[in-house]
Amino acid sequence: MEQVKRRTRKLEMVVVAISFSILTGCAATFISASDLVASKKKGEGKTRVYEVSVEEAWDISKRILKWEAGTDEIDEHRSEGYMVTKVGSTLLYKVTFIGVWIEPVDKVQSKVTVVTKSTIDTIMGLNEAEFHERFALFAHGPENTPP
């Protein structure tokens, strides 16, 4: 009987230790859309100026996020000039957040900034450079894509 109690206590301790590890690991890797906004305010991300209107830049960005990142859930903050989405697996929070900011330069040019953050070391799905590669193709066509 005593041996069963010791085994039960050991099993309980192992379960508690594993549960604690999982909870602290997930808490340490949780990222939200507000983290993207804070990163953008710090000047993070990749920015390029394109010869497209803000309206065109908005449409191109949504297309890229839908087709290339494979997401339909885009949280649009049009009045603030940005959109965010998340891609990847949600099992154990392996997710990449992508934020796109669009600002007018003038009537025919827009500044597009992309910020990505991941809950793991590797960006899953679309990264900042790939987003701009796709954007340039939509904005200029393959024959006019800048280097």
How would you sum up this structure, described in words?
- By secondary structure, the chain is an alpha+beta fold.
- The chain folds into 2 domains: 1-30; 31-144, Alpha-D-Glucose-1,6-Bisphosphate, Chain A, domain 4.
- 43% of the residues lie in helices and 23% in strands.
- The chain is built from 4 helices and 5 strands.
- The protein has helices at 2-28, 33-41, 54-67, 128-140, and strands at residues 46-50, 75-77, 82-88, 95-104, 110-118.
- Strands 1-5-4-3-2 form a 5-stranded antiparallel sheet, sandwiched between helices.
- A hairpin with a 6-residue loop joins strand 3 and strand 4 (95-104).
- Helix 3 (54-67) crosses helix 4 (128-140).
- The radius of gyration is 21 Å and the shape is elongated.
- Residues 19-29 and 143-147 have low confidence and may be disordered.
Summarize the structure.
The protein has 147 residues and is α+β, with helices and mostly antiparallel strands. It has helices spanning 2-28, 33-41, 54-67, 128-140, and strands spanning 46-50, 75-77, 82-88, 95-104, 110-118.
Topology (SSEs and partners):
Elements: H1 2-28, H2 33-41, E1 46-50, H3 54-67, E2 75-77, E3 82-88, E4 95-104, E5 110-118, H4 128-140
Antiparallel strand pairs: 1-5, 2-3, 3-4, 4-5
CATH fold type of the largest domain: Alpha-D-Glucose-1,6-Bisphosphate, Chain A, domain 4
Q: Describe the strand arrangement of the main beta sheet, using strand numbers.
A: 1-5-4-3-2
- Give the overall silhouette: elongated
Overall number of strands: 5
Can you identify the CATH superfamily of the largest domain?
START domain
Determine the structural class based on helices, strands and strand pairing: alpha+beta
Radius of gyration: 21 Å
Query: What ranges have pLDDT less than 50 throughout 5 or more consecutive residues?
Result: 19-29, 143-147
CATH architectural type of the largest domain: 2-Layer Sandwich
Q: How are helices and strands ordered from N to C?
A: HHEHEEEEH
